């Protein structure tokens, strides 16, 4: 008897634990904008060298220490919070220098920012002391700092500093791992345009800390252009790491580095700074990771440090290549960019397309005072026209700028961008200067102008699905999403195009969105002849390496039109080994007709008289209610079975 009670208790706990809260149906975007165009917003109060979306209404900006006009606690601000609903901003205090730090989000929802520069004074010169007591900026050495932020809906969150310090790092890369911890990889100890043997930090470590830093032969052998090594966690649990012309698979558990093919056509890492992105992970590609690299600079290794090398005269590349490292170690060519670009940002959109924006046609990242720099900029010829990449288009026609208009703001070195929940893109930053520089002094100043870009779908009526949930597990029971006639654009056959996508927007800096990825969840549907439907949606695939735990954004997309995104937590919400649940089966995709027959999604919609139409609506409503009832019953079926055993005993 006690055993049966124990089984029932465990089962009920499991059912309750696996019943996430249903989110209110998302509405329509509240912000108005013209599709295909940029809109200038209020100026930011710090220049957005780094930024990330932390809440539905909050973007967090991080700058380097410089003479920003906005002050906090007696010194210039170099971090801020930007409220999207009304453009209200508040300065945030980060006592240490965040110049060229890296960032990501932990599995518990805390954002992490690691590394930076030494304390500086005017002009970016080293401060007299490194303890934060030297004027005029009162900043402390940030090279070993680990900064943490838990985003808030109110005004009560602020950056804190971890009690643990990292290795000394400038330009490190962070990537969230399958347990929600992060790997911190590479960088240099002192910074500069290039890395070199005297200052490189060819190691990686983890946070939360799990022992001393581990030396990497790959990082030792990819000088001098290996800062911000390009890194992605793969479904295999290994990491793709790319720098200079070399590529490896890193097993972060066994510390084994496996060489893959060399990068063709161009250098993609900083300061060549190609645009990079992991392509959408979908059921159709079995959630296989494919990484795309576009642009950069084709500079031979021995020329980077040559006194004769003039970066600003270097034409940026147009080459785009892809690699699926869990399948093959070989790069394949894709459609080239329509224009040469270095420092391009590639942003995943919920319709599956990729937005390419920002960058320069000539030169590289970096700045300095030389005879050939433009002011201090090492780049020129800003690319103002965005372009969209369609992965489903035929080869030769994947890039298009049709219907898109250029920005008026040059954004090259130190610019950033991120997707927003309403499907627009927040764009800010650009600052190829050692300290604050105004437009009256230089051609490419410290940039505070901030924009939103509105993709082609923005002004379409958005789906308003009912039944989206606030937490996703790895495996486990499916959930049902209800779509009405408006969501289906008055045609039940459109349910065949419906899908639920989850996007992590990433930590944006230096033309990289660290941790950015998108997954399409497995789903089927039941469509009804009253032009309603239920989408049966699986949880995350039972492998946290496909999509690591932590906060993300869920969208329902119909006919390429996304709903407004809702924030969800993927995984347990803790930094820990994630629980893997059995995969629940989904019913076959089906559309039910008024005459009680069924058809596939290709079947034509039927017509009926007014009387038959009322019967049709009643019949469809009954079927819809049945599906919703079945969802509840499935959660408790095991508990009821255990109860029957108890009664028999």
UniProtKB/TrEMBL annotation:
Signal peptide stretch: 1-17
Entries under InterPro entries matching the protein: Gal_Oxase/kelch_b-propeller, Gal_Oxidase_central_sf, Glyoxal_oxidase_N, GO-like_E_set, Ig-like_fold, Ig_E-set
Keywords: Signal
Glyoxal oxidase N-terminal domain boundaries: 140-457
Domain Galactose oxidase-like Early set: 462-570
Protein name: Copper radical oxidase
Protein source organism: Psilocybe cubensis (Psychedelic mushroom)
């Amino acid at each position: 008897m006690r055993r049966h009670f124990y089984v029932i208790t465990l089962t009920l706990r499991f059912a309750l634990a696996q019943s996430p809260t249903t989110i209110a149906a998302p509405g329509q975007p509240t912000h108005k904008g013209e599709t295909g165009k940029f809109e200038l917003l209020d100026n930011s109060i710090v220049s957005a060298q780094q930024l990330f979306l932390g809440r539905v209404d909050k973007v967090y900006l991080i700058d380097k220490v410089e003479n920003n006009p906005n002050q906090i606690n007696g010194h210039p601000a170099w971090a801020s919070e930007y409220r999207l609903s009304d453009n209200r901003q508040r300065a945030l205090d980060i006592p240490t220098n965040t110049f060229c730090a890296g960032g990501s989000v932990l599995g518990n929802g805390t954002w992490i920012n690691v590394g930076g520069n030494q304390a500086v004074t005017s002009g970016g010169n080293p401060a007299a002391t490194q303890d934060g007591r030297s004027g005029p900026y009162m900043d402390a050495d940030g090279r070993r700092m680990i900064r943490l932020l838990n985003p808030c809906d109110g005004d009560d969150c602020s950056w804190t500093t971890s009690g643990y310090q990292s290795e000394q790092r400038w330009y490190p890369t962070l990537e969230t791992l399958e347990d929600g911890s992060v790997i911190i990889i590479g960088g240099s100890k002192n910074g500069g345009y290039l890395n070199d043997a005297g200052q490189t930090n060819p190691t990686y470590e983890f946070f939360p800390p799990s022992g001393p830093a581990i030396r990497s032969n790959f990082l030792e052998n990819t000088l001098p252009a290996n800062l911000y090594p390009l890194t992605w966690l793969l479904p295999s649990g290994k990491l793709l790491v790319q720098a200079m012309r070399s590529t490896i698979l890193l097993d972060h558990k066994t510390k084994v580095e496996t060489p893959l093919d060399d990068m063709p056509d161009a250098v993609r890492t900083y300061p060549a700074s190609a645009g990079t992105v992991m392509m959408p992970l979908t059921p159709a590609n079995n959630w296989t990771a494919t990484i795309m690299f576009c642009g950069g600079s084709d500079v031979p290794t021995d020329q980077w440090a040559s006194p004769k090398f003039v970066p600003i005269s270097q034409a940026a590349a147009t080459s785009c290549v892809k690699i699926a490292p869990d399948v093959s170690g070989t790069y394949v060519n894709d459609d080239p960019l329509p224009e040469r670009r270095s420092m391009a940002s590639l942003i995943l959109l919920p319709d599956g397309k990729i937005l390419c924006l920002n960058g320069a046609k000539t030169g590289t990242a970096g700045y300095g005072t030389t005879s050939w720099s433009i002011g201090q900029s090492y780049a020129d010829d800003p690319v103002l026209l965005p372009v969209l990449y369609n992965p489903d288009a035929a080869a030769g026609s994947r890039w298009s700028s049709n219907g898109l208009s250029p920005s008026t703001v040059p954004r090259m070195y130190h610019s950033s961008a991120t997707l927003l929940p309403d499907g627009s893109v927040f764009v800010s930053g650009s600052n190829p200067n050692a300290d604050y520089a105004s437009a009256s002094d230089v051609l490419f100043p410290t940039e505070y102008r901030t924009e939103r870009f509105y993709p082609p779908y923005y002004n379409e009526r958005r789906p308003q699905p009912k039944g989206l949930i606030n937490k996703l597990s790895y495996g486990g029971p499916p959930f049902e999403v209800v779509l009405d006639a408006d969501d289906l654009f008055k045609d039940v056959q459109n349910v065949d195009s419906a899908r639920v996508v989850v996007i992590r927007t990433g930590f944006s800096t230096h033309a990289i969105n660290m941790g950015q990825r998108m997954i399409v969840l497995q789903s089927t549907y039941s469509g009804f002849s009253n032009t309603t439907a239920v989408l049966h949606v699986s949880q995350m695939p039972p492998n946290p390496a496909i999509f690591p735990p932590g906060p993300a954004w869920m969208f329902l997309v119909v006919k390429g039109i996304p709903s407004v995104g809702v924030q969800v937590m993927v995984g347990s919400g803790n930094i820990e080994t994630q629980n893997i649940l059995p995969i629940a089966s989904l019913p076959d995709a089906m559309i039910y007709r008024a005459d009680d027959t069924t058809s596939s999604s290709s079947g034509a919609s039927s017509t009926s008289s007014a009387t038959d139409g009322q019967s049709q609506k009643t019949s469809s409503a009954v079927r819809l209610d049945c599906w919703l009832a079945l969802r509840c019953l499935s959660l408790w079926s095991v508990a009821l079975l255990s109860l029957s055993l108890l009664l028999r005993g």
